[in-house]
Structure formats: structure tokens, C-alpha cells
# Entry
Amino acid sequence: MSAPVSHTEAPAGASSQSSQASRGLVTRRQLTLLGVAVLAVAWGFLPEFTMVVMSYIGLYSIVAAGLVMLTGVGGMTSFGQAAFVGVGAYATAWVCTAPASVAFLGGLVGMAGLPWVGLLLGLAITFAVAWTLGAVTVKLSGHYLPLCTIAWGLSLYYLFGNMQFLGGQTGITGVPALVVAGWSLASPRALGIVIWAVLLVALWLLHNLLDSREGRAIRALKGGRVMAESMGVDTARYRIKLFVLAALMAAISGWLYAHMQRFVNPTPFNLNIGIEYLFMAVVGGAGHLWGAVLGATVITLLKEKLQDVLPSLLGTSGNFEVIVFGLLMLFVLQRFADGLWPTFARLGGRWLKPDAPRVAHQGAALARRPTPAAGQVLLQATGVTKRFGGLVANNAVTMNVRAGEIHALIGPNGAGKSTFFNMVSGVADPTEGEVRVLEQPMAGRPSRAFAALGLGRTFQHVRLLGQRSVVENVALGAHGRARRGWVASMLRLDRAEESAVLAEARAQIVRCGLGAHADTPAASLALGQQRVVEIARALAGQPVLLLLDEPAAGLRHLEKRALADLLSQLRAEGLGILVVEHDMEFVMNLADRITVFEFGTVIAEGTPSDIQSNQRVLDAYLGGAV
# Structure
């Protein structure tokens, strides 16, 4: 075992955190269960009007929770969720009231079974529409994505009002109440129990999803798609799945809404309501599932109070509540940029104990690759050229990296080293030439295909999930070594595999000398430590080929020596390592072979002694002296 990179001090504030934890009364999990129990006990004693308001809060929270996943976690803004609520509502309303549907399906499933057929139809239509729209919409970025959601949200809204078999602008009346095991859910008190049960189950499932391999991939979608692809995540597919998930949650809310209102028309599904749903997610805390419930509660109660108070103060001649509501939203967003939930959680954190440590599950083993034979060519670049218009970033570069060697790539700033790195890792395609990994041609293949073959990499500019812990960041590197999907994660059927992933992540963190910081947010570490986290993340994928972009930048002298020891050990284990570095002492003492770039062209290649005596290299890069 090599000497670890030396960062062994305790995380800052650990003593104060432990003292606060010792004063805690309950854990977050216990507090949640207590809150659910209090709500269940109080439910039968709340006034009827309160029941209606609580039911609406539950319905809105289901949609907002989907938006938290889509927007707050996944980084995709949508103003069109109200349209998917409408799909769920109209599907069940049509099934339960259309004469042809009632005559045919009523005889098969009975009248009490029609709403459940409506649910299945609504989910099926929503899935098809969301997958189709998502395949087009989520490819967009910047302001184009929310603009596109506004466009299809308006389109679906006007479609509801102009289809005569859906009742046009008048809508559909006579939607029956839900009946479960002979028990009618016609009253808001009875149906409210179902609504909140659905909400709590949805929050549990989403929490489980985020606390998994799939959840780490979802979190990486927001601002880290290039990094996530390099770790083996199919980001386009994950974005579509997340879009569909949020749409299905909205459809379920619409189904419940239709059977609570017993009437459906287009008004509740317009763009203004879609904006309110997004407000609920953002005001509550777009990155927090319980923020969806808090945001739905705040906005629903605020609107209710404004409609009661403002007419008595300002008269009924104008729609003043919309103006006041907008001003209040501006204040909240200005004062609480991350939403209300993080503030509540921070204030209440001193009274909470940390949750019990996760119980490790045995029996799962991560997939392992065979170690390549010493000297085997792992990476082969032949005549690789990259042009950006008239600028030639790399010109006919040819080089190989073999198993069991450290190959350094050096050159002045702007020489094209990072561009070459991106081409040999799948981030960019060469304009000309060929890249092969383990003798497989990689033309046109994404970076996740390179990762699947055993290529791991770090980045010139550190790319980490800053608010997540070091162990979660490193575990993302092992994404391709695990197989459990969304459903298994939601139902916690992935626990054995998840334990194996986290164990591998912690082992690599300790190996790289950051064991004391495993549970520290990555953004709180120094830049040099963050670079070491990237190396640990790459190693968690069990690569056979490691690409390191300036790994020693920001490290102190002893830390560089420890890093050199680690890389030497990896070389002895059979890895091939390609490293870009500006520290000449570090490179010359470590590398087996060195390739020198100048203006995107290879000007020299050889052993460190060859490079140090090469006059062209000395003139172009080392200043003309050893």
C-alpha cells in the first residue's frame, strides 16, 4: 500500500457538530414519523373546510415533489406540469362518464372499477406524451427549455378546451367518487386520507431513489452532465426518465383531483397554474422533497388569506391578490434564495440527533474487469486532428498509452493538451484521425462508452457535486459497476449493491488519504483536496486506463510526493496512466514516457532524459535551459 495523500485533520466544526448532536432530542426520521402520527390523530377532528384545504395542499404537493426532482435536483425547468395534471384528470373523467366507455368497461370492471381504468389510461397517455415531448424538450438548454415547456403546456391546455368529446370549455360533469372495498370516498375527509397517503408514499419512494446509485446519477444532471457521462451515466436517458417521472406524478394528482371535484374543465390546467406549481417547488426549497410540501402549504394558505383579506381592504373592483401575491413571492425569493426548507432545517437542526448509521448489507459484489497484460496498448490515437473553424487545436497527433506505464503529456498553456484529453475520453470527436481504446474504434461514441471499457478521468477544472459528501462524489465513479435500476432503488431492493458501492468508495477515499473527510461536503475542501477526490472517484470505477488532467495542481510538496507514490503503485498494478501536468519536477521523476505539444503538434516524445536533452523542447517549453 502506498503512502496516502496527507489530509488527516478532522473536519472543521466537527466538535461543535457533535456537541449539538448530543443535545438533540429525536432524529429526522423519528420526527417525520411523529409528524405523520400527529396528522393521522388530528385528521378526524379538523373542520370540513380545513379538510378541503389540506386535500388541495396534498394534491399540489404531489406535483411540486415531481418538480423538485425535475427542477431542483435534475436542473430542468418546466412550466407545463399543469397540463399533465389535466391529462390525468380528463382521462379518468372521460372513462367514467362517456356513454361508450361506461357501457363497455362498466360491464367488465363494474362502475366502481371505472376510476381505476381511468388511472391506468391517464398514466399510459401521460407516459406516451411525456416521453415524446421529453425526447425533444430535454435536449434543449438555457432559456429554450422553459420556453418549450410553456409552448406545449399551452398547446395541451387549448387542446382540452377545444375537443368536444371532452366537453369543450364547459368540461365534464358527473365524475363519480372513488370507491375502495365498498367504502365511498365522496367526502373530502375520506378522500384526503388517500391523497396524503399517496403523497407520503411518493415522498418515501423519491427519497429512496435519491439515496441510491440512481439518485447520484440524477443529482449529477444539474451542472455536471459532462462529468456524469464520463462516469458512465447516460444523461440523455436519465433526463427523459426524470421528465416522465414528474409528469406521471402530476397525472396521479390530476386523477385524485377529478374524483375530489367530481367535475373537470380546462381552467385549473392553464399556464398560470403551471407557474404556481413551479413557485411551490422553488419557494419551499427546490432541492428538498419536504420543501415541496412546505411550498404548497405556504402558497395555498397565502392565496386563501389574500382572497379573504384584500377585498375588504382594497375593494372588489380589481384582482389585487395577484399583484400582492407576486410581490410577496419576489420578497421570499430575494430573502430565501434556496427556499424556505433549508432555513427551517438549519434552525431545527440543533434539536435533532443524527440518524443511526446505515446497516451494511452483505452478499453483493461489484463487477470487476480483468487486468490487461503488461505492455498492452490501452489507448491508441492515430493522426488525431481537431479544428474549430480555422483554428487547429490538435494537428495529426499520434501516440499510445500502454498498460503498466505512466505517460505524461506536457506543453505550454494553449498547446492543445485538454482538447486532446477530451477527444481520447469521448467528450469531443476528432475532426480527423482515429481513437481506439482496447483496440476498439471509438468514433462517434459518447464518453460513457469509453468509461464502460475501463477509462477513468479527472478534469482540468474540478467537477464535483459540491453540496454532496466526498463519499457520494466518489461513489458516482462506481456507477457503471452496479446494475440496480429506478424501481429497485425506490423499493430499497438495492441495499446490498448500494453497500458494496459505498464500501468501494470509502476504500478509495482512504487509499487517497482523505478518510477523515469522507462525510464532508466536497465544496468545503481545498482545491488540492478536491483534485484528490476526483482521482478517488476515477479509481472507484476500477479503470484500466487513467487520464489525469493536472492532478498535482494545488497540492503541497508532501502531498505531491504521496500522490506520486499512489500513481507508482497503480502503475505496478497494471494500470496505464496518461497525465497532463505543468510541474516539471513531478513529471520528470514519475513518467516513463513523455510527449511534448506545441501549438497542437507533437514536437518530441521519449523518456524523461530524452526530453530534458531535446533542444527543441528546451527552446519551446523549458526556456532554453535544463
Observations:
- The longest strand covers residues 377-388.
- Residues 1-22 have pLDDT under 50 and may be disordered.
- The chain is about 55% helix and 10% strand.
